[in-house]
Design brief:
- The protein is an alpha/beta fold.
- Helix 4 runs parallel beside helix 11, helix 12 packs parallel to helix 15 and helix 14 packs antiparallel against helix 15.
- It is globular, with a radius of gyration of 23 Å.
- It binds pyridoxal-5'-phosphate.
- Pyridoxal-5'-phosphate binds next to helix 5.
């Protein structure tokens, strides 16, 4: 029988050893530039190959028999493990200080897979009050079909979480900061409380990225990201990330990932590896520009309020400083007006921000709450129509402020 390795004179050894080093022992630059890349196995190319193959051949029955039992560790079939995706998994695990990571087709999928793997009929989930909308949908409309109940709580006070614990609570879902009004949870306190009750903890860490917050160091069990945002960073891939212990990753992989097949393809994984090369530069630029713009907006007479975790006026500024070293480039402002017309005029004058959902890419964006008002058959949102969520991308912050200044004149 002819296996793949026998056909070619060059025999690439793509069976990387899975090694996960605690974050502090590996420099960020090492992770983003080298970790996981066994270049001697692919012609010393500095950019890794895209192994665009659905399956992998064995050269003998013996080899087949040995590898086929472990789809996570070996290269058998790309729904399980693909060498390009594996490079990315190693980098992401190291970034979060986790033992292992999985990369899946979307952030929403990452949340769903990890939660599904840890609940069963009759269980109860506690979730922070304003998570990402499709996380809310998972809890409100999906999991109840399988007998899993939930309680949404204001997670800014640990006492609220404690009060919501029921005898059947098995899972605590956090999002700190969230991406609209940036409420935080005290991660160490949540992890401690959950451990006392045998509850698995998970956090959406997309806003901070692992550069600015590493929840596993605070005792959180599972960290997810919408890799669609900063991790990829170029607004051209949708993906999700799950970081956790070897045991937890294997559990999620073995049932949810392999059964539901929610995987990322090698080409998208390669794009994210490329995106990661500049993660530090991009996130830093976005955070620092956002802080500058948030400070300026706070003193602007046409702005009622500015929400940004690293403004001293932010209600949880102290906690932000305690458990985060920065945050993403999202800012929420409330315009000082009662008039929808003035709000509309403001948006119509802006030229350098793009109307769009999402964030974490190169381009500055805005979400106007006013767009969700007066939609037939839908309730108005729980936020005022004067709310504007800005995402500050990689452009010159002064150039963006010029635009905001001229648009604010009409408010
Ligand atoms: C905070 C947050 N979590 C999760 C998601 C879902 O990620 P994805 O769009 O990659 O499925 C999003 C998407 O906008 C998000 O903003």
């Amino acid at each position: 029988m002819v296996g793949a390795n026998k056909r070619f004179p060059f025999q690439p050894n793509l069976s990387f050893t899975i090694y996960h080093l605690p974050l502090r022992k590996v420099h960020l630059s090492e992770i983003l530039t080298h970790l996981g890349e066994d270049r001697e196995n692919y012609f010393n190319a500095v950019s890794p190959p895209i192994i665009q193959s659905s399956n992998f051949a064995f050269s003998s029955l013996e080899e087949f028999r040995k590898d086929v039992t472990d789809e996570l560790a070996n290269h058998i079939y790309t729904r399980g493990n693909n060498p390009t995706v594996e490079i990315l998994r190693k980098k992401l695990a190291a970034l979060e200080g986790a033992e292992d990571a999985l990369v899946v087709a979307s952030g929403a999928g990452a949340t769903a897979m990890a939660m599904l793997a840890n609940v069963k009929a009759g269980d109860h989930v506690i979730c922070v009050k304003n998570p990402y909308s499709w996380t809310k949908n998972l809890l409100m409309n999906f999991l109840p079909r399988f007998g899993v109940s939930h309680t949404f709580v204001d997670g800014t006070e640990i006492a609220n979480i404690e009060a919501a614990i029921q005898p059947n609570t098995t899972f605590l879902y956090l999002e700190s900061p969230n991406t609209m009004t940036f409420e935080l949870q005290d991660l160490a306190a949540c992890a401690k409380l959950a451990k006392q009750h045998g509850i698995v903890t998970m956090i959406d860490n997309s806003n901070c990225t692992p550069l600015y917050q590493r929840p596993i160091e605070h005792g959180i069990d599972i960290v997810m990201h919408t890799g669609t945002k900063y991790l990829n960073g170029h607004s051209d891939v949708v993906c999700g990330v799950i970081c956790a212990s070897h045991e937890m990753i294997r559990k999620i992989f073995q049932t949810e990932i392999m059964t539901l097949g929610n995987i990322i393809g090698p080409h998208d994984a390669w794009l994210i590896i490329r995106g990661l090369r500049t993660l530090e530069l991009r996130v830093k630029r976005s955070f620092e520009s956002a802080r500058k713009i948030a400070q300026w907006l706070e003193s602007h007479p046409k702005v009622e309020q500015v929400l940004f975790p690293f403004l001293p006026s932010f209600p949880q500024f102290e906690l932000a400083q305690k458990q985060m070293t920065g945050c993403g480039g999202l800012i929420t402002i409330f315009l000082k007006t009662d008039s929808m017309e003035k709000v509309e005029a403001f948006f119509n004058r802006l030229e350098r921000f793009t109307f769009a959902v999402s964030w974490g890419g190169h381009e500055s964006l805005l979400v106007p709450m006013a767009a969700f008002y007066g939609i037939e058959g839908r309730e108005n949102p729980p936020y005022p129509f004067t709310l504007v969520r800005l995402y500050i991308g990689l452009e010159d912050p002064d150039w963006l402020m010029e635009d905001l200044a001229q648009a604010l004149e009409v408010v």
